[in-house]
Amino acid sequence: MPTSWLQLSVRTGAADVDALSNFLIERGSPGVVLKKTGVDAFFAHSKDDAALRKDIQVFLEGIAQISSFGGKPRLRWKIIKEQDWRNSWKRFIKPRRVGASFWVTPPWVEPPKFRRRQVITIEPGMAFGTGTHGTTRGCMECLELVADRLQGGEFTGLDVGTGSGILAIALAKLGARKIWAIDNDPVALTVARENLRANGVATRVHLSGTQLNRIKKTFSVAVANLTAETILELACALEKKVAQNGYMILSGILHKKSNAITRCFAAKFNIVKRKRAREWVTLLLQRIE
Fold first, then answer.
1. For labelling, which of 7, 169, 173, 242 has a CA lying 20 to 30 Å from the CA of 202?
2. CATH 3.30.70.120-classified regions of the chain
């Protein structure tokens, strides 16, 4: 166990947060906290610190060249002693209200008592989706709207790129009878499996690394919180998974790329809701064909 840790705080544009957090996880951070204007990450203090700092600096310089942020990312390093580690890492993660239905909370915090909200417990770590990012929140709010529209009937759900499993858990808690959740990242599948179990919905979610085009079923609602580029690549397979009059929720889309997504699906889907959170757009579509 390390005797001390490095805390890295980076302030950059909202559009750069996902790529940066993924890089920091790949570089060995066991704890990444997403914020509106940047990322806090933690690393074990070791003899490799100089190489770590250099790699991150080079990555940030690369981001600066293509970013719309309008300035260089700002970073700050701090050494944290072991006895302060738990508080320094965990104090950033608080229970959060998401939509009208949920408290999203880490396992070490008791959420406030609120009878009309259900609790989703997510262990922050090496998979995307803790309820703090605008794209995750947008998907969960659209899932609430779909569940209201489907109230009184059984419905099924598909979560493409499940990450932490939070959207599959939300589907289960909103009443979906059966959910399929897929991801091509083995780490995400491990994290999602634990989160599904912790929330008591593992028996209702079929979790796997199956490729989207190999799934032959159709679903009442399909949700994909990915990127605009990945959504366009998967467009043909995605639309085939949505049942007649069913819904599709798409997010991870930068505002400037959202029109390309709506055009791609315009022949078979109507726009029900378009939700923007800073640079991010979430789309709720309904199949009309």
1. 242
2. 4-90
59: left (phi > 0), else alpha (psi -120 to 50), else beta? alpha
Start-to-end CA distance of the chain, whole Å, equals 57
Do 244 and 287 meet the contact criterion of CB atoms below 8 Å apart? yes
DSSP string covering 63-87: HHHH-SSSSPPEEEEEEEEHHHHHH
Q: Where in the chain is the domain with CATH 3.40.50.150?
A: 128-287
* 269 neighbors 287 (Cβ within 8 angstroms): yes
* Tens-digit pLDDT string for the chain (289 aa): 456 788 889 888 777 777 787 788 778 887 677 776 788 888 888 888 898 899 888 888 887 776 655 567 788 998 877 655 555 556 666 778 888 888 888 888 877 776 678 889 887 665 455 666 788 999 999 999 999 998 767 899 999 999 989 999 999 999 999 999 999 988 889 989 999 999 999 999 999 999 999 999 999 999 999 989 999 999 999 999 999 999 999 999 988 899 999 999 999 999 999 999 878 899 999 999 7
Query: Which residue has 């858990």 as its token pair?
Result: 169
What is the pairing mode between strands 280-287 and 269-277?
antiparallel
Place of tokens 């634990």: 194
CATH superfamily of 128-287: Vaccinia Virus protein VP39 (3.40.50.150)
Q: Assess contact for 40 and 92: CB atoms under 8 A.
A: yes
If one counts every other C-beta atom within 10 angstroms of the C-beta of residue 65, the result is 6
Q: Which amino acid is at 218?
A: T
pTM: predicted TM-score of the whole model, two decimal places: 0.74
